[in-house]
Design brief:
Elements (H helix, E strand, L loop, with lengths): L1 H4 L14 H8 L5 H4 L6 H20 L7 H12 L7 H24 L12 H11 L6 H12 L4 H8 L7 H28 L9
Helix pairs in contact: 2-4, 4-6, 6-7, 6-10, 7-8
């Protein structure tokens, strides 16, 4: 569980603005989450997330005082890119990144809620599938959906997954799940805030990959 708990997301302020610097610091460790699901089969997902984080960080680094919050990045790019926005720049990168974050959030929430296949309780297939259907499926074309379905079937057993999250340490399942619950508090609030921001700014679009 060390992977998650060592890089907790900050509690949001009253105005629910997501501070760019702390967001990037916390999210930069999440590509490793997909190593826990199987480094080979989830490698393309990990690479995609890493690439989107890099794009957002490049914009932030270009003017940290101007881009203190994610909202400021979107506002600036909306003015900068005009009719091409939101399908460009850090706005597009964050759009795809938030979908991957939602995948992680739904999967972990499903896990701590005890959702499982009664015939195969040691698998995390149910949790991965729910996360994919809620967070990513509608944005993917038919071929990508088929590829992801095959990828999900290669996910590890729950015990192996939790051990990987704990960086190889042997830990009790309930201890792991309690720590995931703690992690989800600020993480879920952050992901929700980003989704709300995209909705309010009319920055979302559903073109399949």
């Amino acid at each position: 569980m060390a992977l998650l708990m060592e890089h907790q997301f900050k509690q949001l302020p009253a105005d629910r603005q997501v501070e760019t610097r702390s967001f990037l610091e916390s999210v930069s460790y999440l590509p490793q989450f997909f190593d826990c699901l199987g480094s080979t089969v989830f490698a393309p997902v990990k690479a995609d997330i890493t690439g989107n984080i890099t794009k957002i960080k490049a914009v932030y680094d270009s003017n940290p005082s101007r881009f203190k919050t994610l909202h400021q990045i979107l506002e600036t790019e909306k003015e900068m890119y005009g009719a091409n926005w939101p399908k460009v720049g850090a706005t597009l990168a964050l759009m795809w990144l938030k979908r991957a974050l939602r995948f992680i959030q739904v999967m972990l929430q499903s896990l701590v809620d005890g959702e499982k296949d009664v015939n195969n309780p040691n698998l995390i297939l149910v949790n991965c599938t729910k996360a994919y259907e809620m967070a990513l499926k509608k944005y993917h074309g038919w071929l990508v959906q088929k590829l992801f379905k095959a990828t999900v079937f290669a996910a590890p057993y729950k015990a192996e997954f939790l051990k990987s999250l704990s960086k190889g340490r042997e830990v009790k399942e309930e201890d792991c799940l309690n720590k995931i619950r703690q992690f989800l508090v600020n993480f879920t609030a952050t992901v929700d805030a980003i989704y709300e921001m995209y909705t309010k700014m009319n920055a979302e679009f559903d073109n399949p990959a």
